Amino acid sequence: MRSERAFKPIDYIKISIFGAALSFLWPSLHTLIIPLRLLELVPEAQKNTYLGILTFCGLMLAALVQPLAGAISDRSSFHLGRRRPFIFIGTLLALLFLPSIGLAGSFLFLFLGYCLLQCACNIAQGPFQAFIPDLVPQKRRGTASGVKNLAEILAGVAFVRIVAYFMDVYSSGGGEIWLWLAIGFPWIVLLGAMVTTVLIVKEQPLSSDSQPFSVKTMVSAYKIDAKGNPGFVWFLVSRLFILMALGTLQSFALYFLKDVVHIPNPAGAAGDLLVTVGIFLLITAYPAGHFSDRFGRKPIILLSGFVGTAGILVLLSAGTYTSVLVCGGLLGISAGAFLSANWALATDLVPPGEEARYLGLTNVATAGAGALARLIGPVIDFFNARQPGLGYSTMLVACVFYFVLGSAAVLMVREKARRDS
Q1: What is the share, in percent, of the chain residues with pLDDT greater than 90?
Q2: One fold for 9-198 and 222-415
Q3: Are 350 and 359 in contact (CB under 8 A)?
Q4: Which of the two residues, 76 and 22, has the higher pLDDT score?
Q5: What CA–CA distance (Å, rounded) separates 408 from 244?
Q6: Phi, psi of 8 (to 5 degrees)
Q7: What would the CATH number be for the domain defined by 9-198?
Q8: CA dist 120 to 38, 84, 113, 284, 368, Å?
């Protein structure tokens, strides 16, 4: 364990750079690039179905690969360290597969390239997430988590709108060069983040008593003591449903803006929506964490569910560009409050001696939520075929239902008493 003196303020930034790059890559792909590419490859009336199938399969792979890569890295003995070799190899594979999103001439090609990209990125991301427990003194991990989240939000707010501009020009007939600019920008950022991380993050050597990786270890990595720790199970259920609501809205936002709000440049509008969400998330994240320390985790999570529901109801009742931005602001407040309080609740609930493994299991709920959120794509197309816009209204009602279920699940969690530092 690093001492307080050895871990300097600049180290917070060093261990957050790679996460910021990933937080720029995926919103760019999921909200902007892939939805517009699908319009060129699949029937218009089935675009939501194809988008749902594509991203569901990719995110299910992420849910499987990420904890497995992390478990393997826990027991690796590379000279470079336990985490950086996986970041290096996973990123190189991701850089190889990312151009397939632009090269794809069929849905099958796009599907294969996207699934390989998910596997590659999660080979890197699983081990990367262990930097905080590996390198940060225990009393400063909350601050490190805050800096990590701040870096990820800033990357999304600063860069995603640029990709939206590129895709707007491309979809308006500007030529393929704009598509390659949209793909090349996150490609360069990801490469730079990987190189920087490998060069400047210094890992400690393995202890001599580390256990080798085995099949039994791999299987046990996914086990949860539901009987001994029921609160953690309810925590996962709550996280799953609320992230499903947020993931559904992010996934189908561009098509909603195109088909319901009838915006001629949906990529730019989707970019504006992401920036709006990011700004309010940025404003909310730290105060929400502070208030969760004072008043408890559950009240903040319940408040986030209420605000998220209000945002969806605004969008459901109005369906205008202004209501889209208002919804984005409310969703940003909801997401900021939820992510801060929910992660704090996770750290309260993990059993002593198994912190890293249990916190890794939260990623199964996160990726699983993203995957399950995409399953509503065929439902949207089914109801849209019967009445224009009905599918999107159904989607919004489902999101309200997800928020309600997530909020109800957190009520079942018994919070542990927290002692003052």
Answers
A1: 39
A2: yes
A3: yes
A4: 22
A5: 15
A6: -95, 165
A7: 1.20.1250.20
A8: 22, 14, 11, 32, 17
